[in-house]
Design a protein that fits this description.
This is Secreted PhoX family phosphatase. The protein is an all-beta fold. It is 0% helix and 38% strand. It has no helices and 30 strands.
Amino acid sequence: MSVSRRGVMKGGTAGALSIALAGSLDTVFQTEAGAATGEAHGYGPLIPDPKGVLDLPEGFSYTALSAEGETIAPGVRVPGKHDGMATFRGGHPGSLRLVRNHEQRSSGVKPVAPAALVYDPAAYGGTTTLEVDRHGRLLGQEISLAGTAVNCAGGATPWGTWLTCEETEGFTGETKSHGWVFEVDPTGRRTEPEPIKPLGRFAHEAVAVDPLTNTLYLTEDAGGPFGLFYRFLPRSHRGGYHCYQAGGELQAMLVPGVPDLAAVDEVGARFRVTWVPVGDPEAKTTSIRKQFEDEQVTRSQKLEGAWWGRNSAYFVASYAERGSGAAGDHAGQVWRYHPRSRMLELELLFKPGGRYDGPDNITVSPYGGGVILAEDGDGEQFLIGTTKQGKTFSFAKNALNESEFAGVTFSPDGRVLFANRQSPGVTFAITGPWHHIKR
């Protein structure tokens, strides 16, 4: 059963989530307890939105597009619980496509799609593909996958497809098994509602792809016992759609002498990693994480984001609490795995505290050398920016309610930031004077 992404540290003791990012940047950035609140950094104070939807700095504006319940076609509406998202090349000059997850399980606005795109008729999750012009204006949208469940995060492949991950191991009423990864073609030509079973059945969170070998690194957000960090060695290194359906080997990470990553509290600590084959990736009778004794693998509470950069796989453990069975207390760890040396290194460690809590999805900002984080915490919800120096600032506020932000991603030219409000679901296209950031 997945741990709530809203965390367990409430009120004044809310913990600041550790965030790291590699990608195209030269360093790893962080937000930490006591960091600047934003008035002197970023784009200035937020201006209250007269419509009460989205507060932004002066000079910025938004367009709300693809809202939950909106009619796409006769009998077809936009599903809710908008979540992870990525951008891809569009089908018209200057346009791009967004593939967006819907983290619905067994209720909500049900995705309606042709039978050729439906996996389990009882499930309410799936993906929607939007086409927008260079200014972020909606040109069209369609349900691109239906009948999946709790589509949370995922990852983009080097060949331009979206791996959408089910953060569940099943639910009442299902007609097929769940806990899989599915591949979605943004063009809509090749998508098949077939799980990539070699990648395992578990509560998937995110995926990072090594573009040289197409090796996958996958996080598991689960409890009882805590989840694992996996890698998948594909049988074929050529890549391309259906690459992972061809098979390979799923393995779980073991750091000898470290049964729980929460026990590590020294930044810069390095460990040699061993990879343990998974006996039954499809978890036909037993969840994968329960197929191992504690000394056979290394576990972690609340494994979330994963991404590839600087020839390494980065992944985040959002928090850990001894009261929940963890080996230590922290408000976030960011780990870097070096495939060539098989070394795991703790890059960042955070203690509870700070103005913001529960950042989740993350994207590189082309401006100021920092990142934009989607907050999923308690109370008010923000899009949080960071500068290259690690200063944090509020970039946007959900002025409507306390629903989380998700799916932050820039257009390839950096002119538009797309972000989702999860409930009621809506995708925002945000434009403005990006170059005017205060460092």
